[in-house]
Amino acid sequence: MSSRKPVQNVEITIDGQLRQVPQESTLVQACQDAGIDVPTLCFLQGMTPANACRICVVELEGSRVLVPACSRQVERGMIVHTESERVRLARRLVMEFLASSVDLSLSETAQEYARRYGAHPERFEAGVGPPPATVAQSVKVDNDLYVRDLSRCILCYRCVDACGEEAQNTFAISVAGRGFDARIATQFDHPLPDSACVFCGNCIGVCPTGALMFKSEHDLRKQGRWDESSQALTETICPYCGVGCALTLHVQDNRIVKVTSPPDNSVTRGHLCIKGRFGFEFVQESEEKS
């Protein structure tokens, strides 16, 4: 006989509608199941919520403060408002603070949120004093595989978690500094080749803003040739070993420009190793030699 306990549902109210949801759900999961789009930036399905960006806050009756939907578990009788005036103001301010301090131009999701909530980041851009440590960093190109442009970093901690116990267990990067000096860094700020990095690229796969990017994409963007609208996506299986990782090849001008993996794939959960993510150059090399 199966020892699995049946899923228990609880009744909550979301935007005036009664909903039956599994008692182990978070508010963001309950909203998604109800077809309600709660904005998220630091949250990624399958990873432990970081509670960093606070764009997902919702109003919970009886709570003094807005609560993060990504991590707050549902409770029987909850009354939740996802688009109240208070919630919209909080989300607008979050987007204004983020967009005034980092470059979000490569994040279509962040730009859409800014438009949705009427954010005007220019209100905070005329600050006094040096920029935060994250913004002050120059683009780091210290290897042939990927580039770090931490002026785009919103400190969502996705890359740190993916490099750590959520996926790779390498722990090559972490948050260094405090307050305005906080930034993502390797130990002692060593270049990536001199750090514990194994170049799996899982940090790239989870980055929501383009702070971490394939060098191939970075070079094409610098040349003004990057064009996602013309790229063909091809699903295939990684040929390097027998695990069977699913790959999505991004092809532009008949060349593979980057490789990703579907986050909902049961084998990879979006994560790959160095061979699966970066080991595609041999295809181009063989074509050029022929």
Structural summary, described in words:
The protein has 290 residues and is an alpha+beta fold. It folds into two domains: 6-128, Ubiquitin-like (UB roll); 133-289, Alpha-Beta Plaits (2-Layer Sandwich). 24% of the residues lie in helices and 19% in strands. It has a five-stranded mixed β-sheet, with helices on both faces. Strand 11 (246-252) and strand 12 (255-260) form a beta hairpin. The radius of gyration is 21 Å and the shape is globular.
Helix content: 10-25%
Bin the strand percentage.
15-25%
Mean pLDDT value: 89
The outline comes out as globular
Features:
single chain; 290 residues; alpha+beta; Ubiquitin-like (UB roll); Alpha-Beta Plaits; 2 domains; 5-stranded mixed beta sheet; 3-stranded antiparallel beta sheet; 9 helices; globular
Q: Could you give the topology of this structure?
A:
Blueprint (H helix, E strand, L loop, with lengths): L8 E6 L2 E6 L4 H7 L23 E4 L6 E2 L10 E3 L3 H17 L6 H9 L16 H4 L9 E3 L9 H6 L9 E4 L6 E4 L15 H5 L5 E3 H9 L8 E6 L8 E7 L2 E6 L13 H5 L2 H9 L1
Parallel strand pairs: 1-5
Antiparallel strand pairs: 1-2, 3-4, 3-5, 6-9, 7-8, 10-11, 11-12
Short description:
The chain has 290 residues and is α+β, with helices and mostly antiparallel strands. 24% of the residues lie in helices and 19% in strands. Strand 11 (246-252) and strand 12 form a beta hairpin.
